Amino acid sequence: MNEKTTPSKPRHVRDVSEWHKTTDVAVIGFGGAGSCAAIEAADAGSRVMIFEAASASGGSTALSSAEVYMGGNGGTRVQRECGLEDKSEDMYNYLMQAGGDFADSAKVKNYVDGSVDHFDWLVSMGAKYKNSIYNERAIMAMTDDCLLYTGSEKAWPYRDIAKPCPRGHNLEVEGDNGGPMLMGILTEQVESRDINVHYDSRALTLIVDDSNSVVGIVVRIDQQELNIKAEKGVILCAGGFVMNEEMLKKYAPSLLKASIPIGNPNDTGFGIKMGMSVGGAAINMHDGFVTLPYYPPSSLTYGILVNASGQRFINEDCYHGRVGYHCLQQPGDRIYLVFSAEDFGEYETQSYLNADIAGTGETLCELEEELGLPNGVLQNTVETYNINAAKGEDPLLHKSDEWLKPIKAPFAALDCTPGRGAFYPYFTLGGLDTLPSGEVVTSNGDVIPGLYAAGRTACGIPRTGACYSSGLSVGDATFTGRMAGKQAAKRK
Ligand SMILES: Cc1cc2nc3c(=O)[nH]c(=O)nc-3n(C[C@H](O)[C@H](O)[C@H](O)COP(=O)(O)OP(=O)(O)OC[C@H]3O[C@@H](n4cnc5c(N)ncnc54)[C@H](O)[C@@H]3O)c2cc1C
């Protein structure tokens, strides 16, 4: 019986008795990264085939809001038309800080330098962005407005490191419909070119030669394993590994404390495993995006988050992802959002949080008792917070004065404890180590000839949930897909 073909074991070219198809560039996955890689490789004159496991294009990109993080270089058309100047230096400094200890300066620089060009390219593909700003503190614009703060730019410590500027770009579409729209546009662009698309076609493993160069890919189509020759290379754009529990347990167990993995069912890490099988380094595998969507309503930002010791731990005006990440890091088994009942606002109709009311009280003592917190600590936390908030200050955690006001009776608290109902969606940020060009490298930094990766299969610009900003994943996937497509097409 033949040995099962698995992504962790490449096929050697000597075991290939027949090439069933030949192309220059084989792109694995038809989501955000794959579509952009295919378009650029085709536009550079290469023959391109896309192999997509699903029956249609889209991937997680089509499930997303398609917010794209762009700016710098003086500003995108939208930023400039809205009267905003966005310096590259500010965008670079913000992204480097937001990337944490593992930020990749070469990639960040390349992304920032190419960001306005990327905006123009998306527009040239057919993406429409209105010259407008959505001024609410929100997770996404539910109107067709474009610009939105999608990170912690205005919050401490980032506001002191780089001049804040909104860089999240939403497509001109009402509601949360950006993802299907973007993928519709990119799919049309692929279809308008001489790109050979194969749906229901799962890539199984890479094909390598004696020098460990990648020369093709094994794909299963109609129950048959086909050997595809890729004369210039294979671009892995197969998403991340958030749907692979075994890989999560092995690489990113802390993410399992969050509640819902989000992505498409093929986010199983096959692309990453294929890259690893030929010596590609997998980096940053422990980190991921996780969020606690406690706004809208934005009025809940006037509240404070406390842990099982009744202590605050984050400035609550940060982006919801940064807050969610820090909630998961807290010791103890309780996280509460404590607020004035008057700030409950439109929680029941607007919120995605799904957190239950854990307690209410006319006094802090009553609330504390109901929440089962150690005697006096919540009272102390709120009283200290209130004294400073009344002066427009937060010496402890530096919440901006825009969101500071004393918390008044009647008091209420939402139960944001992980595992007790609150919505904590997550996805992975680790992947194959690549150069800014998309070439996959080994742990020594050597390029693996013929192998490229982009989007969530690679480890790109977003590196940590500790300061993720929305728009960095679709931004990174579409941008790095383009880089990899161009680079593969250049290969002799
Ligand atoms: C609900 C939701 C909202 C989000 N909102 C945003 C947002 O607004 N902005 C933002 O920046 N990020 C957002 N994200 C994250 C972002 O959507 C993804 O990280 C990004 O789109 C990934 O793009 P990709 O091209 O790497 O992967 P995908 O778009 O997932 O494409 C990967 C493709 O590869 C295919 N595939 C997988 N394995 C194989 C195989 N072995 N053979 C062949 N094909 C295979 C898959 O079927 C899929 O079509 C959101 C995510 C979700 C789930």
From TrEMBL:
Q: Fetch the Pfam families from UniProt.
A: FAD_binding_2
**Alphabetically ordered keywords of this record:** FAD, Flavoprotein, Oxidoreductase
Which domain of life does this protein belong to? Bacteria
* Cofactor(s) needed: FAD
The record's listing under SUPFAM superfamilies reads: FAD/NAD(P)-binding domain (SSF51905), Succinate dehydrogenase/fumarate reductase flavoprotein, catalytic domain (SSF56425)
Using the record's annotation, list all stretches that form the FAD-dependent oxidoreductase 2 FAD-binding domain.
Answer: 24-461
Q: InterPro entries recorded for this chain?
A: FAD-dep_OxRdtase_2_FAD-bd (IPR003953), FAD-oxidoreductase_2 (IPR050315), FAD/NAD-bd_sf (IPR036188), Succ_DH/fumarate_Rdtase_cat_sf (IPR027477)
Q: From its record, what is one biological process in GO terms? A: steroid metabolic process
Q: Name one GO molecular function term.
A: oxidoreductase activity
NCBIfam families, alphabetically? PRK07121.1-3
The name this protein carries in UniProt is Succinate dehydrogenase/fumarate reductase flavoprotein subunit
Source species, please?
A: Sinobacterium caligoides
